[in-house]
Amino acid sequence: MPLITSRENPHIKAAVRLRNAAAERCASGKFFLEGFRLCADACGSGYAPEELFLTPAAREKYQTAPLERAAAQVFEITETVAQKLGDTQHPQGVFAVCGMKPSSLPGSPTNPQIRWGGLARGVPLRYIALENLQDPGNLGAVARTAEALGLAGLIIGNGCDPWHPKALRASMGALLRLPVIRTDDLPGALRSSGLPCYAAVPDRGAASVLACDFTRGGILAVGSEAEGLSEEAIAACTCAVTVPMPGRAESLNAAAAATILMWEMVR
Amino acid sequence: MPLITSRENPHIKAAVRLRNAAAERCASGKFFLEGFRLCADACGSGYAPEELFLTPAAREKYQTAPLERAAAQVFEITETVAQKLGDTQHPQGVFAVCGMKPSSLPGSPTNPQIRWGGLARGVPLRYIALENLQDPGNLGAVARTAEALGLAGLIIGNGCDPWHPKALRASMGALLRLPVIRTDDLPGALRSSGLPCYAAVPDRGAASVLACDFTRGGILAVGSEAEGLSEEAIAACTCAVTVPMPGRAESLNAAAAATILMWEMVR
Question: Pick from B217, B221, B223: which is nearest to B265 by CA?
Answer without folding.
Answer: B217
